[in-house]
């Protein structure tokens, strides 16, 4: 039964925020906590690296997004977003329970489990993003993206931080059981929320071809790639840089966990307010300029040596959590604006997949540059790239081209009952 009162924009933002927290709990457990637990049980580093296969569903989810979107938006009748989220969430929870039973030391079994969980979570993400674009008016996009980015920081802190504490005190099986229960609780507000009014007929058939045929969507893919490169590539070496600067692992854990969550969540909320007031383009440009300055400061600290650790920690928090949260709230608001509401799950997924692909590639390149030329070269090149990206971002993030008259009529007829 649907819960009354959950059809307001605020309730919808909180509902999708719960899903984003849950997805990031899974990512935190997989990429933050699981490698540490495996290492503690004596597994080799090359074997532990196999856990990163779980990133593949997030990179490749655009391949099955059309099928998910066609199921989610039938020719007639209400959206099936909630049923997708329900089934996908239960698969994720069951996967965590199974992972708790097989144990972190059983490498083949745990990799198979996390791949299934990642596949289910990435599919839920398609439905969640599509529902957010459909249900939230343009003026509420910033808050929706604040929930997305803020939820990511909160979920990562739970999955990579709290989970390890639970493992230490309760054991692997009980910790995984609690994470599974938390996923179910986080998904309930969305599953129990009422479906929006359904149009009488949906003539549009969602497809990748329809997405890639739109020039503004192709421009958005370029923007996604550029922004991921400028905001993330330099940050991949921040942890090793702080360790080599003398910061111990315990302190680094506090910085990445509690500090990163607090700063990231606060800046995500600030980003949502700024996007609502000024739009996404100026906020993205501001974040690029700030990140360029932060990266330049990191490069200078490596070249000059002797920079106080307190300053480096503060700079790391500002750049990796604060500025990135601010910028990505604005970027995802741009993604929402670029997505065709008739197939938002496909369009938004394409843009996110480009982000994930470029981020993965950049991690390899940043490591090679740092190894051969030093951290200063990595941070300095990233700062220069961020500065040069400002005018390109301003051009690529211009207002999306309106739909053609034929497309506009179709979209209005399909969405009028939903947006009213």
Question: Any overview of this molecule?
Answer:
- There is one protein chain.
- By secondary structure, the chain is mainly alpha-helical.
- The chain has one domain (10-410): MFS general substrate transporter like domains (Growth Hormone, Chain: A).
- It is built from 17 helices and no strands.
- The chain has helices at 9-40, 45-48, 56-60, 65-72, 81-102, 107-135, 141-170, 172-192, 208-212, 215-232, 238-244, 249-278, 280-304, 309-338, 344-373, 375-396, 405-419.
- Helix 13 runs antiparallel to helix 14.
- The two termini are 23 Å apart.
- Residues 1-6 and 401-420 have low confidence and may be disordered.
Blueprint (SSEs and pairs):
Blueprint: H1 9-40, H2 45-48, H3 56-60, H4 65-72, H5 81-102, H6 107-135, H7 141-170, H8 172-192, H9 208-212, H10 215-232, H11 238-244, H12 249-278, H13 280-304, H14 309-338, H15 344-373, H16 375-396, H17 405-419
InterPro entries: AmpG_permease/AT-1, MFS, MFS_trans_sf
Family: Belongs to the major facilitator superfamily.
Protein name: MFS transporter
Descriptive labels:
single chain; 420 residues; mainly alpha; Growth Hormone, Chain: A; globular
How many helices?
17
Average pLDDT taken over every residue: 81
- Low-pLDDT stretches are 1-6, 401-420
Helix content: over 70%
The tally of domains stands at 1
Q: What letter string, H or E per element, gives the SSE order?
A: HHHHHHHHHHHHHHHHH
Instruction: Report strand %.
Output: under 5%
CATH fold-level assignment: Growth Hormone, Chain: A
CATH architecture: Up-down Bundle
- Which CATH class is shown? Mainly Alpha
CATH superfamily, called what? MFS general substrate transporter like domains
**Main β-sheet, in a few words?**
none
- What is the rounded Rg? 21 Å
Broad shape: globular
Taking the alpha carbons of the first and last residues, their distance comes to 23 Å
Q: Name the structural class.
A: mainly alpha
Q: How many distinct beta strands?
A: 0
